[in-house]
């Protein structure tokens, strides 16, 4: 390892915020030093409580995270927040607003906030996000929140690597309730109904209870708590923090924390490997004129997509195989 | 090609429904004969109008598709419907109900309805779904509807291979509106507001108009129509069919149909190739004890996930490479 990375790793393990910021940038930019760094600090991970936070846009996730951060700090814990931003140019304004809601924490050395942009390849992003969470863990954050927007499978993949998964909803989140009901979305560990001053809050809570009563129970005896909050006014946040603590205690005492982490780490290895293969493949499609010709054949309906895919894979295997150069001779 | 597959291909191209059903089962089960068949009939595809249909569960997509199918049949067109079912055991009841809504069409030789189950790997499912759509196209269906449930990236990947993308909403679809607004969900070509007898319908339509006015225009001069329907009573269906026809005419006249199909076919090749690589990888992880040992190292925090992924990829490349056997000697 180069001497400056060792220094960065040491500074990171000591909890230095600038070192952490630099490390996450290296990972986000997919730089070899970044991966090297994660490798170096990985034995020091596994101590943080990683909490995945998802829900449709507009429910006030950033405000909730701001309030949760404050509550965790009051309890003497250090916090990392990793926000996964969607790619659309639409969101620039919204995200700026979100970041402002978290500014009160920017000067607190016990809080580290970072957003990561989706640069098109969700596989790649979720890969980078998980590495980011590991870096925060290594830097000694007691609690790491990984926030993502949306209610689809790809978003769930990102937060599925957490110890505890929180779904944030609000009165009017009919689509998300239906998605839970239809089994499109997995049942989370904790549900928050934010903006609970809305008159339809109790109707919403009843609907959620109805959906939960239909489904199979979560692991063992865990009953998914539904916490009503008004994050903008700090209402219900203490209850939410307690619910997160209860879940953590529960999975720890039941031994499911270890099981979960084993499954999550396996998924992570597959996700990283798949993402790398996919990127390699896309690069070869972009750069290789003979692959472009294959695609022209597909468009002309002379070669079917599956055969083209098999051909691309065969050419790719030749290129990456250690035996390829021997064969070429 | 084996003689019985030739017969199946011939029967499929003649529009035989039983041959089509058999062909889709072969593809769904990932049988080599299925892929062979798609290869054989692929030159006869590209004639159908492929319409992707998505939206949160509960908005009445099956009822809409039933009504649309009736309307297309009245106009003398043959129809294929391919429904992509989510995996949860929760949905059994809902799907049975959905299928019942389509039963009036089961005896019509001009209508072919098929659902495909998600067996965990969405990549694999979307791959099979697209092959299914090609088979329906080859069997001479004039219109092929590909239906999917949900509002996330993975669901969009499935329908993104369509010529026209329809998003179905209903009054109360607040989460989906927010997802459109935040750019988490792509702007579709046509939006349907079903259950339009609800008092909040016009509020909903105004909200959608607001979101559409914020975003970048769709290709060229296309203005996304918002069609109000009450599918259960057949109201608004004629208007919806006309909107679909207008969009098809539009992309044809602008030349964007060819552009779209080129992009979609490229994405399809990448998706099939990635899905195959992923499956191969997962199999090697399941079956190879030495890979299991790698994972144990990851769980023990001695080996980081990215290094484990690199190691798994290296072992995999050795196995699949044509040069590997030479090297082993």
Automatic annotation (TrEMBL), chains A, B:
Asked whether the keyword Nucleotide-binding is assigned, the reply is yes
Membrane spanning segments where? Answer: none
Query: What family does the database annotate?
Result: Belongs to the SIMIBI class G3E GTPase family. ArgK/MeaB subfamily.
Does the record bear Chaperone in its keywords?
yes
Q: Could you tell me which residue ranges the AAA+ ATPase domain spans? A: 47-297
Species lineage: Bacteria, Bacillati, Actinomycetota, Thermoleophilia, Solirubrobacterales
Record's Pfam families?
MeaB
Keywords of the record, alphabetical order, are: Chaperone, GTP-binding, Hydrolase, Nucleotide-binding
Q: Name the source organism.
A: Conexibacter stalactiti
Per its UniProt record, what CDD domains does this chain match? MMAA-like (cd03114)
Q: Which gene encodes it?
A: meaB
**What is the protein name given in its UniProt record?**
Methylmalonyl Co-A mutase-associated GTPase MeaB
């Amino acid at each position: 390892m180069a001497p400056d990375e060792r220094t960065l790793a040491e500074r990171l393990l000591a909890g230095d915020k600038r070192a952490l910021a630099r490390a996450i940038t290296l990972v986000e930019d997919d730089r070899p030093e970044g991966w090297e760094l994660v490798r170096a600090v990985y034995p020091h991970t596994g101590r943080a409580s990683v909490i995945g936070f998802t829900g449709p846009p507009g429910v006030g996730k950033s405000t909730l995270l701001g309030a949760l951060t404050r509550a965790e700090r009051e309890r003497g814990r250090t916090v990392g927040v990793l926000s996964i931003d969607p790619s659309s140019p639409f969101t620039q304004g919204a995200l700026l607003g979100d970041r402002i809601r978290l500014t009160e924490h920017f000067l607190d050395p016990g809080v580290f906030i970072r957003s990561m942009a989706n640069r098109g390849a969700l596989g790649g992003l979720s890969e980078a996000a998980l590495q980011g969470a590991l870096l925060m863990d290594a830097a000694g954050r007691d609690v790491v929140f990984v926030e993502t927007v949306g209610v689809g499978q790809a978003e769930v993949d990102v937060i599925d690597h957490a110890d505890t998964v929180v779904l944030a909803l609000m009165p009017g989140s009919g689509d998300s309730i239906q998605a839970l009901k239809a089994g499109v979305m997995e049942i989370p560990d904790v549900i928050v109904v934010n903006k609970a001053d809305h008159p339809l809050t109790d109707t919403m809570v009843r609907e959620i209870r109805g959906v939960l009563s239909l489904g199979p129970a979560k692991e063992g005896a865990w009953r998914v708590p539904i916490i009503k909050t008004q994050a903008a006014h700090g209402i219900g946040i203490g209850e939410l923090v307690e619910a997160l603590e209860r879940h953590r205690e529960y999975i720890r005492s039941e031994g499911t924390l270890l099981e979960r982490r084993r499954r999550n780490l396996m998924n992570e290895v597959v996700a990283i490997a798949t993402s790398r293969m996919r990127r390699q493949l896309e690069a070869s499609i972009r750069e290789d004129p003979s692959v472009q010709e294959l695609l022209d054949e597909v468009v002309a309906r002379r070669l079917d997509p599956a055969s083209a895919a098999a051909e691309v894979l065969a050419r790719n295997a030749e290129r990456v195989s250690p035996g390829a150069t021997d064969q070429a001779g």
